[in-house]
Amino acid sequence: MKKERTLAVILLAAGESRRYGGIKLLDNIQGKKMYQYAMEILKEAKAEEKVVVTGYQEVRETADKLGMQVVWNDQPAFGISLSLKLGLKKVLEHRPEIDGVLFLVCDQPYLSVDTVNGMLQCFRQGEMNILCSVPAGGTLEEAGNPCIISKHYFEELFLLEGDVGGKRVIRRHLEDAEPFFISRKRELLDIDTKIFIQPKKN
Fold first, then answer.
1. Tens of pLDDT along 59-72?
2. DSSP per residue over 144-197, as a string?
């Protein structure tokens, strides 16, 4: 029987939210701060390692209470690539044998833990080195967060600079990527402006 691959989840929670006009992840959305939606998913995610990268004390304290690894990033101006690399470095310090990482962001309040755990399980049992969330009926060209990238491409992730995330690596290797189709498209909605957010449905 094939050995299942081991996985970590990294929550990227250090962004400046320049387009949002405020600290997006600390904003209240339907009575809950936006980062808390992601933190709840991280808590329930079926992964061997969980890391939060943040430059916000409130997020750090919440992650500490939940027993998660925390990496402090007080230089968000360097872009998402810095958070990504800090998180990946922390994972490899604790789990050098890890087979892949799922990257989670704070501005998808509709994302469900079932989707994240579904992606983790799919990657564990699969053969491809990249797994991308894609709207139902879409293509890999529409891939976004969350995504899973295997250790095969960690070196490329460490070479990223500026406000660039894993999508750049994914686009270089679409032949080694598999889509994970999301039927409820709003799960993949990124909140970039202060708009009314509808309540999550069970």
1. 999 999 999 999 99
2. EEEEEEEGGGHHHHHT--SS--THHHHHHTGGGEEEEEESSGGGG----S--PP
14-19: average pLDDT: 63
Distances (CA, A) of 116 to 41, 93, 163, 170, 202: 8, 24, 24, 18, 15
Which tens digit of pLDDT belongs to each residue from 40-89? Answer: 999 999 999 999 999 999 999 999 999 999 999 989 888 899 999 999 99
Which CATH number characterizes residue 62's domain? 3.90.550.10
Is the pLDDT at 148 greater than 80? The verdict is yes
Task: Sheet containing 49-54: give its strands across.
Answer: 69-72, 49-54, 7-13, 100-105, 144-150, 130-135, 177-182
Sign for the pseudo-dihedral over CA of 153, 155, 156, 158: positive
Angle between helices 34-44 and 57-65 (to 10 degrees): 30
Query: Cα 196 from chain centroid?
Result: 23
Q: Report the predicted TM-score, pTM, of the whole model to 2 decimal places.
A: 0.90
On whether residue 129 sits in a domain, the answer given is yes
Please tell me the total count of domains within the chain. Answer: 1
| Residue for token pair 């990496």 | 71
Q: 14-31 burial, b for 16+ CB within 10 Å, e for fewer? A: bbebeebeeebbbbebee
